[in-house]
Amino acid sequence: MRRWIVWSVGLLAYIVAVLDRTTLGVSGLDAADRFNASPAILSTFVVLQIVVYAGAQIPAGLLLDRFGSRAMIVSGGLLMAAGQLTLAFSESLPTAIAARAVVGLGDAFTFISVLRLVPYWFSERQIPMVTQLTGICGQLGQVLSALPFLALLGAAGWSTAYLSAAAFGVLVVVLTIVVVRDTPRGRAQVVRSADLAETFGSLKTVWLRPGTRLGFFTHMGCQFSITVFALMWGIPYLTEAQGLSRGTAGALLTVSVAAAIAAGILIGIITARNPHRRSWLVLGIMASNAAIWAVVLALPGPAPLWLLVVLIIVISIGGPGSMVGFDHARTFNPSRTLGTATGIINMGGFIASLLVMQAMGMIIDAAGGYSFDAFRYAWAAQYVIWILAAVAILIARRKARRTIGDIDESKYLLEFFDDRRE
Fold first, then answer.
1. So where does this one cross the membrane (predicted)?
2. pLDDT of residue 403
3. How far apart are the first and last CA of the chain?
4. Could you give the CA distance from residue 264 to residue 260 in angstroms, rounded to a whole number?
5. Which terminal residue of the chain, N or C, has fewer Cβ atoms less than 10 Å from its own Cβ?
6. Regarding predicted confidence, which is higher, 97 or 385?
7. Quick check: helix, strand or coil at residue 297?
8. Domains contained in the chain, CATH given
């Protein structure tokens, strides 16, 4: 029972991180009015946040290996609360952009730290499913931003909504301090401090493991479409280009979470039973994402509501699909460098997301603002990432299969279980 309590508090910290990550996406038009920001400038808000998030993944992974999950979750929570508090009262565009960068840094500390709790607290058979549950249940934060946060924003205004998000974050920090421990026996094995040369050598070693590269491109190809939709351009697209009300658009984002939860459970079962078919599953998810967007973007006018629901359901499967990348990390890396490997893999989807977000902002600006055709051109930018990721997955998979006979995977598993016993 204790393991589920520890995991639940860690999960709550991740839910808050997703809430903080997506608040600007649902309040994008309000932010444009408050800060007098154009579409390109508005996309810079989120792009900078994602740049900080992605850029901090490797340092966060190294710090996680050094200090453990509890300290990193607390630090991340405090940073995000500080960023949201600043946004609550700021009317200055530079200050607001800096505050989103702070939110991105705290967010970078949180997810991989919660993921690292799972191998220490759960059995080998439970790990794939609990990992999936962590990723998909964390998306409840998106529901919080799409429903109560958005409702509070409309009823009480910008400052009250963002102040409430900051207060929720502080509450979770307190719970983490009281409840969470790195392992059932306290602190995890501490990785000794290394100089710069050793650090880069360690990063190179982790990256050269075939599972790390396969996980990186898996995360890249699956995650970015729903991330761009939820974090930045989904609500403006549904309201301005598709003609939906803000309430209906917010409700569609809750459909996204329900779809991700259902898909995540199924993906967890499939990957646990068929670990050698994980890459085919990932490629199928990417192909389905590309296909449904092709159908929607081919329409000469707004899509019917049922098709928008199908679109959101299909692209939402990419979220749990990207979690397969972390399963590759666990398979090919010993636990002492698992934080670093997880950080590297987690960069994949967010690098793709920030590139697409910024490209979309520039395309919408160039096309004259928030119009149906502008969004149509902008969403087409996704296909560059899908092609790149698919090719990279095929190459990485082939290299992994060619070298798998030379990799003593049992060595990594032995080190993993030795670490858990310490």
1. 41-64, 71-90, 96-118, 130-155, 161-180, 214-235, 247-268, 280-299, 305-326, 338-357, 377-396
2. 58
3. 21
4. 6
5. N
6. 385
7. helix
8. 2-421 (1.20.1250.20)
Q: Which of 14, 253, 257 is nearest to 147 (CA)?
A: 253
CA 303 to each of CA 210, 243, 247, 412: distance values in angstroms, whole numbers, following the listed order: 41, 10, 17, 50
Angle at 184 between CA 181 and CA 185, to 5 degrees: 95
Contact between 10 and 69 under an 8 Å Cβ cutoff? The reply is yes
Residue-wise pLDDT for 82-94, tens only, equals 999 999 998 888 8
Structural contact between residues 348 and 340, judged by C-beta atoms closer than 8 angstroms: no
Q: Which amino acid is at 377?
A: Y
Give residue 302's region: left, alpha or beta (phi > 0; psi -120 to 50). Answer: beta
Placement of tokens 């991330």 in the chain: 227
3-state secondary structure 229-288: HHHHHHHHHHHHHCCCCHHHHHHHHHHHHHHHHHHHHHHHHHHHHCHHHHHHHHHHHHHH
- Structure tokens that stand for 320 in this block: 């749990």
pLDDT digits (tens, 9 = 90+) for 34-71: 888 777 777 777 778 778 887 888 888 888 878 889 99
CB 232, CB 22: distance < 8 Å: no
> How many residues in the chain?
422
- CA gap 392, 283 in Å, rounded: 11
